[in-house]
């Protein structure tokens, strides 16, 4: 094949926009370009190791993988080279000219103008390569994919504006050279001491050697007999590793500083903030593995979307196997970031195989236990800092944890212990179920809770009126996931949990005989009204009955035990799900003047519908026919 002349390509529109942003908004933290490019080089070596399992010829008699950073003061270039998998011409065009990940638009919209915050986003959204343009006016990439002919290597050149050029070149060595032509204001990065320091800071844990040319002190040449007055550092042909090049998780715990753990986390997760906590263990037994698991301090933007991915990387005997290993952590702990290195799994393990492996199940259970124990430790700790951490953890991840109630039956009790709620007596989301139990009234036999669309709606729910009157504390739940999750929970620590908007209220011993008698009497007295109401509202309600649970409100809606509440029905409908129609029960307060008025009203039908619609509104819904509702209200107002 003959050498072809360079071909121009345009960047995908988004890339062009991104490049502009990168160079204009991230210049206050320029050094991250080294972290990003070294991380790409290291990924490329990981990929070679992985593909080399099935294609040993890819190693081309050059099995020692490394990254090399070289500085050229004369040409003002810094070059990051690796002998990893390399890029084919097509890959160079695709991977360096477009952004495959859908997150880019998101990325742009998230840029806040706060450069520190924006700098971390760049890594999160997989646009690391372009960070080179923070310091370079031009980037040349020369690459040869493993196994490809030397004559069919590729050169990619761009100044980071609208387009890039691609041409075929000859390149003997496998892998990729990223050559940054530094801008005049970035020539600092030609100082080896500075570059070493940055590599140590960001990339010390990278498990392959990052090498620079060894420098030696050379004294100035002088005439015979004179002593030299000075000298300079000059480069030799020898390369030396400047990182410790042992994967952090393989090292001994006591030899790792907190700073190293934190830096490793930041690299792993592309999070700019330190993690809240971590656990590092070598687990021995029938399944042997090392786990290094982190709890981030903030929830990722996509935590609650379908795009959310598990944050665990799987290694087998230090060989990188895959990202986002979702078999190694349950879905409700998807916020956990970390590394699992297994001694038992085969190197060619696939996602399908992982699903069936007993070892994987053991590892997942081990990871789950470790995280739950760590969180429990924070929750129980007397240390103020730990308490603060737990609070932050809960604010960020509390609602994800609740998914575990439906997902992980074996750990339900452990998860319940970690949950915190606000209550009718205390707005702070700080009451644990154990706290609640300790405050229960004499004779109280259940843990009461109410679910609603918002905390305010929960707090002011008519269903709570009697509880307030009797000063019985009720847990308020307003997370979207609450009602679904609580369906799986019947009790905590031997005490039943009861949703006060479901089924008839049974306050047990908290209600004295006299009150019960009064209710029976009222039910008797109101029977004709109740019958008439049932008839007027028969298309809307399953049943109408008298209640003592209300104090200030005329009526409320109640769902039967085991049925979906109106909130959940609304939510599912919004999500486009078909749900079986079920009618609520209407409970009326015989003490309320409006209800009393029903007995004598000559507008019975209007009043009945208004009372029903108001009950719908009180729990956050809309009347089925708002116009009819308004008409009825107005007609009643005019009387
Ligand atoms: P990410 O690393 O998150 O995929 P980057 O913007 O850092 O995003 O890199 C984009 C892509 O360019 C990589 O996914 C990879 O395919 C390719 N790439 C970048 N650097 C190298 C390299 N040194 N060797 C091989 N491929 C590379
Ligand atoms: Mg990258």
């Amino acid at each position: 094949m003959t050498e072809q002349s360079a071909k121009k390509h345009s960047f995908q529109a988004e890339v062009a926009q991104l490049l502009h942003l990168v160079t204009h908004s991230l210049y206050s933290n320029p050094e991250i370009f080294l972290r990003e490019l070294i991380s790409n080089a290291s990924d490329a070596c990981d990929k070679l190791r992985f593909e080399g399992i099935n294609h040993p010829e890819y190693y081309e008699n050059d099995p020692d993988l490394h990254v090399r950073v070289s500085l050229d003061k004369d040409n003002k270039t810094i070059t990051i080279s690796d002998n990893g998998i390399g890029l084919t011409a097509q890959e160079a065009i695709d991977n360096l000219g477009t952004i495959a990940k859908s997150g880019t638009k998101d990325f742009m919209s998230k840029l806040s103008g706060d450069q520190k915050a924006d700098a971390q986003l760049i890594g999160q959204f997989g646009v690391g390569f372009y960070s080179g343009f923070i310091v370079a006016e031009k980037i040349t990439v020369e690459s040869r994919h493993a196994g490809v002919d030397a004559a069919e290597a590729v050169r990619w050149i761009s100044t980071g504006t609208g387009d890039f050029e691609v041409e075929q070149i000859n390149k003997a060595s496998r892998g990729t050279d990223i050559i940054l032509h530094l801008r005049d204001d970035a020539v600092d990065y030609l100082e080896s001491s500075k570059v070493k320091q940055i590599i140590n800071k960001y990339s010390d844990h990278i498990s392959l050697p990052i090498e620079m040319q060894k420098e030696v002190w050379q004294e100035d040449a002088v005439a015979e007999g004179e002593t030299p007055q000075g000298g300079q550092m000059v480069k030799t042909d020898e390369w030396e590793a400047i990182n410790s090049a042992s994967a952090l998780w393989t090292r001994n715990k006591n030899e790792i500083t907190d700073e190293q753990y934190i830096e490793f986390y930041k690299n792993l997760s592309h999070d700019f903030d330190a993690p809240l906590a971590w656990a590092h263990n070598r687990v021995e037994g029938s399944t042997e593995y090392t786990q290094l698991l982190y709890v981030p301090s903030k929830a990722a933007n996509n935590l609650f979307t379908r795009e959310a991915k598990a944050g665990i990387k799987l290694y087998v005997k230090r060989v990188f196997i895959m990202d986002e290993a979702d078999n190694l952590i349950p879905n409700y702990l998807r916020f956990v970031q970390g590394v699992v290195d297994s001694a038992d799994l085969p190197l060619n393990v696939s996602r399908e195989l992982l699903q069936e492996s007993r070892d994987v199940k053991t590892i997942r259970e081990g990871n789950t236990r470790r995280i739950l124990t760590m969180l429990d430790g924070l929750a129980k700790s007397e240390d103020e800092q730990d308490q603060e951490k737990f609070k932050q953890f809960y604010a960020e991840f509390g609602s994800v944890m609740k998914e575990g109630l439906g997902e992980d039956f074996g750990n339900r009790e452990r998860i319940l212990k970690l949950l915190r709620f606000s209550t009718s007596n205390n707005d702070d989301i700080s009451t644990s179920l154990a706290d609640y139990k300790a405050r229960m009234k004499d004779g109280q036999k259940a843990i009461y809770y109410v679910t609603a669309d918002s905390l305010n709606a929960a707090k002011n729910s008519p269903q709570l009126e009697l509880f307030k009157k009797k000063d019985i504390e009720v847990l308020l739940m307003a997370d979207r996931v609450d009602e679904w999750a609580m369906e799986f929970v019947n009790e905590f620590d031997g005490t039943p949990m009861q949703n006060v908007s479901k089924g008839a209220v049974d306050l047990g011993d908290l209600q004295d005989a006299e009150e019960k008698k009064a209710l029976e009497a009222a039910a008797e007295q109101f029977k004709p009204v109740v019958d008439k109401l049932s008839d007027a509202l028969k298309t809307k309600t399953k049943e109408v009955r008298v209640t003592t649970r209300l104090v200030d409100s005329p009526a409320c809606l109640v769902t039967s035990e085991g049925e979906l509440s109106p909130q959940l029905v609304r939510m599912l409908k919004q999500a486009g799900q078909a749900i079986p129609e079920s009618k609520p029960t209407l409970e009326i307060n015989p003490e309320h003047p409006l209800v009393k008025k029903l007995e004598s009203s000559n507008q019975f039908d209007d009043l009945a519908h208004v009372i029903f619609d108001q009950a719908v509104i009180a729990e956050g819904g809309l009347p089925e026919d708002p116009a009819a509702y308004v008409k009825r209200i107005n007609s009643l107002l005019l009387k």
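Residues 384-407 form the longest helix (24 residues). The two ends are 96 Å apart (CA to CA).
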